[in-house]
Specification:
The chain has 212 residues and is of the alpha/beta class. Helices cover 37% and strands 9% of the residues. It has two domains: 140 residues, Lysozyme-like (3-Layer(aba) Sandwich); 72 residues, Muramoyl-pentapeptide Carboxypeptidase, domain 1 (Orthogonal Bundle). Helix 6 packs across helix 8.
């Protein structure tokens, strides 16, 4: 899989120093500056320490099965804003090459918040997932919700959320992570008919073989 992050630091130089500091005990395979410069920090065949305690689709050691890409960005802590065009345009060919080389399903191009919902919010609700989906590099948000709201209670929604891939140990945070990715205009941690319908459509598409 590929995990996308933001650095939540003042600039790329500060992020680079931290990612190269052994005492920080954090690393990533790539860092992309806001100006679009791509720096490889760890060979793709080697493990990088970018995901931390995380889970996705049965994998509890995400670092062992993923490539981590850090996006130079101030994050929610230092002034959350849109991601730069130059940075996104640098991400596209890098991600396309990685996906092709390792035959990575679109469903496994994920946010840090997807794999660590109780701890992380990056890259956040302003990351342009829809544009990545236009290039076939991420799943698109379903534009047609065929069955409406199919779940009669919250427990069935949580079970479906876990089936899709999320760690539901902290239910509210898992819902927030799902909303951040699939309904970014309203993130409140509450289960409602809209997100139930979105999740059901995602699972329906996957069962039909349309979500690889």
């Amino acid at each position: 899989m590929v995990v996308l992050h933001y650095t939540e630091m003042s600039d790329a130089s500060a992020a680079l120093r931290r990612l190269c500091d052994p005492d920080a005990k954090v690393s990533a395979h790539y860092l992309i500056s806001e100006e679009g410069e791509v720096v490889r920090l760890v060979a793709e065949q080697r493990r990088a320490w970018h995901a931390g305690v995380s889970y996705w689709r049965g994998i509890r050691d995400v670092n062992s099965a993923s490539i981590g890409i850090e996006l130079d960005h101030p994050g929610h802590l230092l002034g959350y804003r849109e991601f730069s065009t130059a940075q996104f345009e640098a991400l596209l060919p890098l991600l396309a090459r990685i996906v092709k080389r390792y035959d990575i399903p679109r469903a496994n191009i994920v946010a840090h918040s997807d794999v660590a919902p109780s701890r992380k919010t990056d890259p956040g609700e302003l990351f342009p997932w829809d544009r990545l989906a236009d290039y076939g590099l991420a799943l698109a948000r379903p534009d047609k919700l065929e069955r409406g709201d199919p779940f009669d209670n919250d427990a069935s929604f949580y079970l479906a959320l876990e089936r899709f891939g999320y760690d539901i140990a902290d239910g509210r945070k898992a819902v927030e992570a799902f909303q951040r990715r699939w309904r970014p205009h309203r993130i409140n941690g509450e289960i409602d008919g809209e997100i139930r319908a979105i999740l059901f459509q995602l699972l329906l598409d996957r069962d039909r073989g349309l979500a690889r």
